[in-house]
Structure formats: C-alpha cells, structure tokens
Amino acid sequence: MEQLFKLKAHGTTVRTEIMAGITTFMTMAYILAVNPGILSAAGMPAAGVFTATALSAMIATVVMALLANLPIALAPGMGLNAFFAFTVVLGMGYSWQLALTAVFVEGIIFILMSLFNIREAIINSIPANIKKAVAVGIGLFIAFIGFQNAGIVVNNDATLVSLGSITKGPALVALIGLVIMGVLLAFKVKGALLIGIIATTIVGIPFGVTTVPQGWNPVSAPAAPLLFQFDFSKLLSLDFFVVLFTFLFVDIFDTIGTLLGVTTQAGLIDKDGKIPKVKQALLADAIGTVAGACLGTSTVTSYVESASGVAEGGRTGLTSLTTGILFGLALFLSPLFLLVPGAATAPALIIVGLFMLSPVKELNLTDFTEAIPAFLTMIMMPLTYSIAEGLVFGILSYIVLKALTGKFKDISVVTWIIGGFFILKHLL
Length: 428
Description:
Elements: H1 2-5, H2 14-28, H3 31-40, H4 46-68, E1 74-76, H5 80-89, H6 96-115, H7 118-125, H8 128-150, E2 153-156, E3 160-163, H9 169-186, H10 192-203, H11 238-265, H12 278-295, E4 300-302, H13 306-311, H14 317-330, H15 334-338, H16 342-355, H17 368-384, H18 387-404, H19 413-427
Antiparallel strand pairs: 1-4, 2-3
C-alpha cells in the first residue's frame, strides 16, 4: 500500500484511508437508488440501470485510484442523468438508446481530449462566473425535480406550477424525509443522505408509499446490465451534435470543479495552483463515461461528495479504491436499493441541490456583464427544464453584453465558437 499510494508522503495511514473511503461511499451511495429512478423515467429497466450504475462507479473510481492516486470517487452524475432522461428522452423525444450513444461518443472524445490536454485548454477559456453558475443552476434544477417527483410541486394550468397535496401520500413522506436528512446533516452524521433515504423508505411503509413484495429478499445476484444498447442512426444530425455538445460541456465543468474543490480541501494543489496528475484524473473520468455507456447508464463524473472522505483524512487513491470496492459489493444488494420509492429519494435530490449552491458565494455580482449571464444560466435551467438552454442563455448573453460594452478582450475564441454553435442550433 505504501509503495502504491505513498501514504507516508501524504501524512496518512491505511486505516485512515479506508475509513475515509467508507465515508465517501456512504455519502454518495444514494446514487444507487436515485439513478435507476431517474433513468427509468426514460423507459430504461431500473434493475439493469442499477447494475450499470454500480459497475461504472466501481470501474471509474478504481481507475482514479490507480492512475491518479487521488481521493476522488466517480459515479453517474446528478444533473447529467436528469438531462439524459428529462431533456434528451422525454423533452426532445429521442430514444434512450440514442442518448446512450451520445454518452458513449462523449466518452471517446473525452479520452482523446484528455490525452492531448484539450480539456484543460477549454476550461481556461470559459468565463469563471459561467462555470460557477452552471453548478448552481444544475442544483436548482435537481431540487425542482425532487419537489416534482415527490408531488410537492405539481402542474397547474393557470400558474404553470403550484403546491401539491402535502398532508398525505408521497409528498408527506418526502417532507418527513427532508426533515430527517436535515436533522442528520445538522448533527454532522456521516452518510446523512443514505441514512435519510433508508429511514424515509421505512416511514413510507405504513403510508403505502413503500411496497415490499411478498417473499422479498434484499440479497440477490445482480441483473444483467444494458450492454451496448446503442443507436448510431442519427450520429451525423445537428440535434445529436447539440445533445453530445451539452453532455460534453456540462461534464467538463462538473469534473473540473469537483477536482479543484476536493483537491484544494485536501491540500493537494501545488504551489502553481495546479492539480497533481490532473491528466490521469480526467482520463479516469473519460474511461468511466465510456464504460458506463457500454453498461447502460448516463455520464460518469467525479463526485463532490468525495469531500466527505477528505474531511475524514483521505489523501490518496486508497480512499477511492475503498469506495470503488464498496460499489462492487453493492451489486448484490439491488433488491434493497430498488425497493426505495421516489418519495424517499426526492429529499436527497433537494438536499443535493442545496450542496450544489455553494459556488454562488463566489459569483461576481457587481459587474453586470458578469452577473446577468450567471443569473440567466442559473434561473433558466429549472424554468426551461433544460440544462442546455440555461447554458445557451448564459453564454450568449455573456457574449452580447461584453461585446456591446466594448469588453471584447473578455471573450475568448472558444467562447465565440460555442456561442456560434448555440445560435446555429436555435436557427435550425
């Protein structure tokens, strides 16, 4: 372990790293319940998605451990799975097989971009305020989906949305779950979200929200993953490119933001402000995305919940190796995770939305050529039910405001190119 992970050089021990890995798993294991729920809305078999989720998380996290030696775990990304199900499949009307194809192609492109250091170059060219606003906007979008899945917020033909019936059924169970998770987080209980999901699932039984099948057994052999379910028929279409580009764009900022945040917290950033072995870390993310698409899940990305393991003292890849092994063990508990109703995962979605709001503190709100694009990015994601449209409004408004106020030097060449693609998408 010392030779592989250089524990002494990082001031850590095997015990500390393993405990940190368990903590990271506990804080992000909710994805095993949430991801099948979200992707099943797109028509994908929940059991197969569960297997794909656990396997892709295990593969990507182990690759991160062995290639980059960083305490960062990966799994199918929140926000990206929502874009996959609610925007690409339900909104744009494409099949989930086509969406998986876009994820697969994205992963291949990511591998090439990582090998040739293109991802770092793109990151450096995008406005800092937009990067932070993307995370915040996705957080608002995820929280909105949570409220909707629980029936707390419902459709209203007069006002678009309104409050649902919160004194019974799934909405009441979800609100109870929200209180449970809030109290656990306030007391800094490790694995608050996972414990909260389990507790809410149990609470849902007497309410008839959680249904336990007769003869139910929590342990079983994993279902077959959705292997190679690709559709290349629309590979050269403009809409496919827009979907691909959005997956690409969102995942870039999700991954880079997480890498920067977690490695800074762990004290791993070097004196020049660079992440150690960032190329290998980005490659692990790309490999995870390709593996996930082949297995049948949406884009795999680095998880900000890795910060919980770092807070427990995790400093090396042994932390992420431990997390990866635990995802592998979870494969044999699929009935347990698939028992969880939407009302139990909805509070987790709402809380994750809160977690993703932290970059709002760093936004530049004094310069209106920066503040307005950031605000439009954030607010348009939940209001249009589309991460892609939030990006369109944010980047195009940034270009227009900067150009009209004579601040051309603030607009990079890549930003101009991205804006051009977004204009083309809406014209066509």
